Amino acid sequence: MYAYAPAVIGIQRGDTVDINLVATDVVHGLYLEGYDLSVDADPGQTARLSFVADQPGSFRFYCSVACGPLHPFMSGRLKVGGSRLFWRILGLALIAGAAVSLVRLR
Ligand SMILES: [Cu+2]
């Protein structure tokens, strides 16, 4: 049907991503730019792709099998955010910085 559901996938850097590609009509594929990964699914079959999202950024994915007239428009996006650990450490550093400032005010 020339679409992915969900079309936008948001994850964190370092997450293990398991994509289950299920083709509900004809053969479709999924090629993920940036990671250079692809998978094809036959109708009614589930094809699996598993990888660790080690590169942050926004990556387009699109159908890699000529599936019909709207094939060029069959795309989606994988958004890999910064590491949760990084933000936790930054948050703790800010709290520690604020605590030091409070102590100095006394
Ligand atoms: Cu296609």
Nutshell version of this structure?
This protein has about 110 residues and is an alpha+beta fold. About 20% of the residues lie in helices and about 40% in strands.
Description of the structure:
This protein is of the alpha+beta class. It has one helix spanning 84-105; strands at residues 8-12, 16-22, 28-32, 37-41, 46-52, 57-62, 75-81. A five-stranded mixed beta sheet has the order 1-7-6-3-4, with no helix packed on it. A two-stranded antiparallel sheet has the order 2-5. The longest helix is centred in the last third of the chain and has 22 residues, at 84-105. It is rod-shaped and about 70 Å long. Copper (II) ion binds next to loops.
Summarize the helices and strands and which ones pair or pack.
Blueprint: E1 8-12, E2 16-22, E3 28-32, E4 37-41, E5 46-52, E6 57-62, E7 75-81, H1 84-105
Parallel strand pairs: 1-7
Antiparallel strand pairs: 2-5, 3-4, 3-6, 6-7
The structure holds copper (II) ion.
What structural class should be given to the helix and strand makeup? alpha+beta
Overall geometry comes to rod-shaped
How large is the count of helical segments? 1
Topology as a string of helices (H) and strands (E): EEEEEEEH
| Percentage of residues in DSSP E strands | 35-45%
List bound small molecules: copper (II) ion
